Amino acid sequence: MVNTTADRKVTMSITLLRILIGWHFLYEGVTKLYNPEWTSFGYLASAQGPLKPVFTMLAQEPMLQWVDVLNMVALLTVGITLLLGIFERKGALVGIGLLSLYYLAHPSLPGVHQINVEGNYWIVNKNLIELVACILLFNFPTGQFFGLAYFRKGRLTKTQQ
């Protein structure tokens, strides 16, 4: 027997998580979009860990311009899809990829000097936590419960009848 009250609470909790993460990504993307002086140069140039050479290369022109644009587009895409609850699995995948890159640029691994980070971490940091949350959102999409996917699903069901 399925406990529908518990299922509903879990769905509501995951939906709230989806909306909050969507807001976070959207806000980050919008602030970067409307700040003409923003660049990812500092973050990339100060990268640490085993992939430092890759991120250092990305911090050089002309790659940096592309990285900045792609970063903003990815942030906005994740934000819009998760906040609105449509194509959220695709948005969650983009979020997973983006957060993986953020984590790998500044891994909180033992022996890696941490610079350009907000706190003191050991293996687990906020990027890794949000990455795992995006994995949860990928596996349990909630747009059909609360989001534009709900309306899209209803319209598809009516046209199939």
Describe it.
- The protein is mainly α and 161 residues long.
- The protein has one domain (4-160).
- Helices cover 68% and strands 0% of the residues.
- It has 7 helices and no strands.
- The longest helix has 30 residues, at 4-33.
- It is globular.
- The model is unreliable at 156-161 (pLDDT under 50).
- This is DoxX family protein.
- It is found in: Membrane.
- It is a multi-pass membrane protein.
- Keywords: Membrane, Transmembrane, Transmembrane helix.
Task: Please write out the topology.
Blueprint: H1 4-33, H2 41-45, H3 52-58, H4 63-84, H5 88-105, H6 126-139, H7 148-160
Structural class: mainly alpha
Task: Kindly report the oligomeric state of this protein.
Answer: single chain
Number of helices, where a helix is a run of at least 4 consecutive DSSP H or I residues: 7
Major beta-sheet overview? none
Protein name: DoxX family protein
InterPro entries: DoxX
Membrane topology: Multi-pass membrane protein
Organism: Flagellimonas algicola
Summarize the entry for a quick read.
Its main location: membrane. It holds the Pfam family DoxX. This protein has seven helices and no strands.
Comma- or semicolon-separated keywords:
161 residues; mainly alpha; 68% helix; disordered C terminus; membrane; transmembrane helix; transmembrane; DoxX; DoxX family protein
